[in-house]
Amino acid sequence: MVIGTRSIRAIVALATALLCIGLAAAPVGAQAQVTSGEFGPLDVPALEVGGHATMVRTADGRTKIDAHVEGLEPGRTYPAHVHNLPCGTSRGGGHYQDTAGAGTTPPNELWPSDDPRDPLAKITANDAGVARGNGTAEWTARAEAQSVVIHQWDDAAVRIACADLV
Protein backbone atom coordinates (compact mmCIF):
# COMPACT_ATOMS: atom_id res chain seq x y z
CA MET A 1 0.00 0.00 0.00
CA VAL A 2 1.36 3.41 -1.01
CA ILE A 3 0.59 6.40 1.21
CA GLY A 4 0.41 9.72 -0.59
CA THR A 5 1.50 13.14 0.62
CA ARG A 6 -2.09 14.16 1.39
CA SER A 7 -2.60 11.04 3.50
CA ILE A 8 0.59 11.69 5.45
CA ARG A 9 -0.47 15.31 6.06
CA ALA A 10 -3.90 14.14 7.23
CA ILE A 11 -2.33 11.62 9.62
CA VAL A 12 0.04 14.26 11.03
CA ALA A 13 -2.82 16.76 11.45
CA LEU A 14 -4.95 14.15 13.23
CA ALA A 15 -2.08 13.14 15.53
CA THR A 16 -1.37 16.79 16.35
CA ALA A 17 -5.04 17.46 17.12
CA LEU A 18 -5.25 14.40 19.36
CA LEU A 19 -2.10 15.47 21.21
CA CYS A 20 -3.48 18.98 21.74
CA ILE A 21 -6.81 17.60 22.98
CA GLY A 22 -4.96 15.29 25.34
CA LEU A 23 -2.84 18.15 26.73
CA ALA A 24 -5.82 20.46 27.16
CA ALA A 25 -7.97 17.81 28.85
CA ALA A 26 -5.28 16.48 31.19
CA PRO A 27 -5.38 17.59 34.81
CA VAL A 28 -2.47 19.79 35.89
CA GLY A 29 0.39 17.60 37.05
CA ALA A 30 -0.67 14.59 34.98
CA GLN A 31 0.96 15.86 31.78
CA ALA A 32 2.66 18.96 30.51
CA GLN A 33 0.66 22.18 30.58
CA VAL A 34 1.37 24.45 27.61
CA THR A 35 0.61 28.17 27.37
CA SER A 36 1.66 30.48 24.56
CA GLY A 37 1.13 33.86 22.97
CA GLU A 38 2.18 36.27 20.25
CA PHE A 39 4.56 39.19 20.83
CA GLY A 40 3.26 42.70 20.26
CA PRO A 41 4.86 46.11 20.87
CA LEU A 42 4.64 47.85 24.26
CA ASP A 43 6.49 51.12 24.98
CA VAL A 44 7.61 51.63 21.37
CA PRO A 45 4.34 51.19 19.42
CA ALA A 46 5.92 52.16 16.09
CA LEU A 47 8.25 49.16 16.34
CA GLU A 48 7.04 46.25 14.23
CA VAL A 49 7.78 43.44 16.66
CA GLY A 50 6.32 39.98 16.23
CA GLY A 51 6.99 36.39 17.12
CA HIS A 52 5.79 34.08 19.87
CA ALA A 53 6.54 32.67 23.31
CA THR A 54 5.66 29.26 24.73
CA MET A 55 5.79 28.07 28.33
CA VAL A 56 5.64 24.38 29.23
CA ARG A 57 5.04 23.25 32.78
CA THR A 58 6.30 19.67 32.62
CA ALA A 59 4.90 16.64 34.41
CA ASP A 60 8.23 16.25 36.27
CA GLY A 61 7.98 19.65 37.99
CA ARG A 62 10.03 21.88 35.70
CA THR A 63 9.12 24.91 33.61
CA LYS A 64 10.48 25.64 30.14
CA ILE A 65 10.23 28.87 28.17
CA ASP A 66 10.88 29.42 24.47
CA ALA A 67 10.85 32.81 22.75
CA HIS A 68 11.09 33.75 19.07
CA VAL A 69 11.09 37.52 18.46
CA GLU A 70 11.19 39.35 15.11
CA GLY A 71 11.61 43.03 14.26
CA LEU A 72 14.45 43.78 16.69
CA GLU A 73 17.53 45.85 15.93
CA PRO A 74 20.14 43.52 14.37
CA GLY A 75 23.12 42.72 16.56
CA ARG A 76 21.54 44.01 19.79
CA THR A 77 21.19 41.92 22.93
CA TYR A 78 17.88 42.12 24.80
CA PRO A 79 16.92 41.08 28.34
CA ALA A 80 13.77 38.91 28.34
CA HIS A 81 11.93 37.58 31.38
CA VAL A 82 8.74 35.88 32.46
CA HIS A 83 6.49 38.49 34.12
CA ASN A 84 3.70 38.21 36.66
CA LEU A 85 0.83 40.03 34.90
CA PRO A 86 -0.70 40.02 31.42
CA CYS A 87 0.67 42.49 28.86
CA GLY A 88 -2.36 44.79 29.14
CA THR A 89 -2.00 45.19 32.92
CA SER A 90 0.87 47.41 34.06
CA ARG A 91 2.84 46.45 30.91
CA GLY A 92 3.25 42.88 32.19
CA GLY A 93 3.88 43.82 35.81
CA GLY A 94 7.11 42.75 37.49
CA HIS A 95 9.41 39.81 37.03
CA TYR A 96 7.84 36.49 37.99
CA GLN A 97 9.83 34.86 40.80
CA ASP A 98 9.56 31.31 42.10
CA THR A 99 10.14 32.60 45.63
CA ALA A 100 9.34 36.29 46.10
CA GLY A 101 12.40 38.25 47.23
CA ALA A 102 14.81 35.32 46.82
CA GLY A 103 16.73 36.83 43.89
CA THR A 104 16.09 38.67 40.64
CA THR A 105 17.97 36.30 38.35
CA PRO A 106 17.84 32.61 37.49
CA PRO A 107 17.42 30.15 39.14
CA ASN A 108 14.68 32.14 40.96
CA GLU A 109 13.45 33.72 37.71
CA LEU A 110 13.00 32.30 34.23
CA TRP A 111 14.78 34.12 31.40
CA PRO A 112 14.95 33.05 27.76
CA SER A 113 18.63 32.87 26.76
CA ASP A 114 20.29 32.19 23.42
CA ASP A 115 23.19 30.41 25.18
CA PRO A 116 22.13 27.05 26.65
CA ARG A 117 25.08 27.15 29.05
CA ASP A 118 24.23 30.59 30.46
CA PRO A 119 20.68 31.35 31.67
CA LEU A 120 21.70 35.03 32.07
CA ALA A 121 22.91 35.47 28.48
CA LYS A 122 19.74 37.23 27.24
CA ILE A 123 18.76 37.03 23.54
CA THR A 124 20.64 38.61 20.63
CA ALA A 125 19.05 39.60 17.33
CA ASN A 126 20.71 38.22 14.21
CA ASP A 127 21.31 40.21 11.00
CA ALA A 128 17.60 39.86 10.13
CA GLY A 129 16.47 41.21 13.53
CA VAL A 130 15.35 37.79 14.79
CA ALA A 131 16.22 36.57 18.28
CA ARG A 132 15.53 33.17 19.80
CA GLY A 133 16.04 31.92 23.32
CA ASN A 134 14.92 29.35 25.82
CA GLY A 135 15.34 28.50 29.45
CA THR A 136 14.45 25.87 32.02
CA ALA A 137 13.66 26.20 35.71
CA GLU A 138 13.67 23.34 38.20
CA TRP A 139 10.27 24.43 39.56
CA THR A 140 6.71 24.65 38.24
CA ALA A 141 5.58 28.18 37.50
CA ARG A 142 2.38 29.17 39.26
CA ALA A 143 -0.61 30.72 37.47
CA GLU A 144 0.72 34.28 37.97
CA ALA A 145 3.50 33.60 35.41
CA GLN A 146 1.44 35.30 32.71
CA SER A 147 3.68 36.91 30.11
CA VAL A 148 7.13 37.25 28.59
CA VAL A 149 8.54 40.78 28.27
CA ILE A 150 11.43 41.87 26.02
CA HIS A 151 13.25 44.89 27.47
CA GLN A 152 15.27 47.60 25.67
CA TRP A 153 18.96 46.71 25.37
CA ASP A 154 20.22 49.92 27.03
CA ASP A 155 17.28 50.83 29.30
CA ALA A 156 15.57 47.98 31.15
CA ALA A 157 12.69 50.30 32.08
CA VAL A 158 11.66 50.39 28.41
CA ARG A 159 9.63 47.35 27.46
CA ILE A 160 9.78 46.68 23.74
CA ALA A 161 7.44 43.73 23.40
CA CYS A 162 5.19 41.42 25.39
CA ALA A 163 3.48 38.07 24.80
CA ASP A 164 0.63 36.86 27.02
CA LEU A 165 0.96 33.20 28.04
CA VAL A 166 -2.57 31.86 27.68
Walk me through this protein's architecture:
The protein has one helix spanning 5-25, and strands at residues 33-38, 40-41, 50-57, 63-70, 77-78, 80-83, 123-124, 131-137, 147-151, 159-164. It has 166 residues and is an alpha+beta fold. The chain folds into two domains: 1-30, no CATH class; 32-164, Sandwich (Immunoglobulin-like). The strands form three sheets. It has a four-stranded antiparallel beta sheet, with no helix packed on it. A hairpin with a 7-residue loop joins strand 9 and strand 10.
Averaging pLDDT over every residue, what do you get?
Answer: 86
Secondary structure category: alpha+beta
Going by CATH, what is the homologous superfamily of the largest domain?
Answer: Superoxide dismutase, copper/zinc binding domain
Q: What is the element string, with H for helices and E for strands?
A: HEEEEEEEEEE
Strand content: 25-35%
Note the main sheet: 4 strands, antiparallel
Overall 3D form: globular
CATH architecture of the largest domain: Sandwich
Quick description:
The protein has 166 residues and is an alpha+beta fold.
What key attributes describe this structure?
single chain; 166 residues; Immunoglobulin-like; 2 domains; 4-stranded antiparallel β-sheet; 10 strands
